[in-house]
Design goal:
The chain has 19 helices and nine strands. By secondary structure, the chain is an alpha/beta fold.
Length: 441
């Protein structure tokens, strides 16, 4: 399997065709070696984010993009748009849930992203992020230690395969029935501190993994300054002294993941509270030295809204569903394959259809679940079709880079993010480190 950068696409075909996880891991190592030789390396955005608060530069928002399907083609399109705009400030991410339903485990996702960078002749740091490393509240209530250990195992695996940016989502543990904000946020900041301590113990030597916290679950009530301060103060109390904390904080300001689909299949208008977003970002930067606030669930917002994120000094914005929608709804996506996917959903996702829900609402809500089972068929489409779809999304990526004002940021990123060739710790060693005694009592 000795290949060079010239035929790197062969590695991608193997990653898609072969299910064996050990083979995927071996391919990742080969791709990583080629990437290093070409001046491409997985990196943490931590130092860049902390410098944003410390040195006061801003006026831009970093896009964090979840690629659920056609990952190689869309990553290539992103790298082309980035080079055209001289932008080094962008993140590739995938959530814990997405790894499952899209059938993209960490070694595969990271290898495909790096392969795309090699193919497009990109140079410099590549930021790969584990989005929504989320605590399952039901499992946590049943056995908190077991749930935390399962997240530690996922985090250790992600870091081993170049995910040097980890978003911890323990906001599911916020209990609004409690009488005080501190009690409401207690398990959120406590678990976030424990997982941050774990990350500091397993991160590669010389790398400070960028860690994000979250104070309000997306789709629920809007976050407040008091909640941010209570979370951060509690997090600092629980984090062992001397350890590096988080670099950003996710907040809720009115969005929902995937948007709200109406009976006719269109998306409802979102009333995003930009004033709250601006206030929370300012508090995060000035009072706690973070890059600022992070906005989730934004990809289905109207195009005219995106420039406001940079104006509000939002540190990062997460984008996913619109890319999936553009692929499915492209004139180049074969209608017969789409119909096959919808027929599969009628059988395999039937339990998710609610009373009174239209077919348009049902398919919109569930079609992400078909991306894993149909991964090979989608990636097996003729190059001409995949290229045409990718070209449509490339225009969207170009638009986002400009609207979020991450044009000509490459030199600024390179100033703070240096080349670090690292050797990740073995996952089995990391998994042996449990959270017992990690609190700051």
């Amino acid at each position: 399997m000795a290949r060079t950068a010239k035929d790197i696409s062969g590695f991608v075909k193997d990653l898609i065709a072969i299910e064996d996880i050990e083979t995927k891991k071996r391919i990742y190592k080969k791709v990583l070696g080629i990437a290093y030789k070409n001046g491409i390396y997985p990196a943490s955005i931590h130092d860049f984010y902390i410098a944003r608060a410390k040195e006061g530069f801003g006026g831009f928002t970093v896009p964090a993009m979840n690629l659920r399907s056609m990952t190689y083609d869309l990553a290539r399109a992103i790298f082309r748009a980035a080079q055209r705009n001289n932008s080094g400030a962008f993140i590739f991410e995938i959530a814990k849930s997405e790894m499952g339903y899209t059938n993209q485990p960490p070694p595969e996702y990271a290898a495909v992203i790096l392969a795309a960078a090699i193919k497009e002749g990109y140079r410099g740091p590549v930021f790969i992020q584990a989005d929504h490393t989320q605590v399952n509240i039901k499992k946590f209530k049943e056995n908190p230690e077991k749930e935390i250990e399962s997240l530690q195992a996922l985090i250790a695996e992600a870091i081993e395969y170049g995910f040097y940016n980890i978003d911890i989502d323990s906001s599911t543990l916020v209990d609004l029935s409690q009488a005080t904000v501190k009690k409401q946020q207690y398990y959120n900041f406590d678990v976030c501190a424990k997982l941050t301590q774990f990350i500091r113990r397993v991160e590669p030597k010389g790398v400070t993994v960028s860690v994000g916290g979250e104070i309000g679950e997306v789709g629920h009530k809007n976050s407040t300054p008091e909640e941010l301060r209570v979370f951060m103060d509690g997090f600092k109390e629980r984090l062992r002294k001397g350890l590096t904390g988080i670099s950003k904080i996710s907040v809720q300001t009115g969005t929902s993941h995937g948007g709200v689909v109406l009976p006719d299949g269109s998306i409802a208008q979102v009333a995003l509270d930009f004033d709250t977003l601006k206030t929370l970002s300012e508090i995060a930067r000035k009072e706690y030295g973070l890059a600022g606030a992070v906005q989730h669930g934004a990809s289905t917002l109207p195009s005219a809204a995106f420039h406001k994120f940079a104006q509000c000094e939002t540190a990062e914005v997460h984008l996913a569903t619109e890319f999936q929608n553009m692929m499915y709804d492209s004139q180049h996506f074969p209608p017969e394959l789409k119909e096959k996917i919808y027929q599969w959903l009628k059988i395999n996702a039937a339990s998710e259809k609610k009373d009174g829900e239209t077919d348009e609402q049902f398919f919109y809500k569930t079609r992400k679940k078909a991306l894993g089972p149909f991964k090979r068929e989608i990636m097996g489409l003729p190059d001409s079709l995949r290229d045409a779809i990718a070209l449509e999304l490339e225009a969207k990526f170009d638009f986002l880079f400009k609207q979020l004002n991450v044009v000509n940021k490459k030199e600024l990123v390179d100033k703070y993010i240096g080349l670090k060739r690292v050797i990740s710790r073995k996952r089995k060693e990391a998994a042996a480190i449990v959270h017992d005694g990690e609190g700051a009592d």
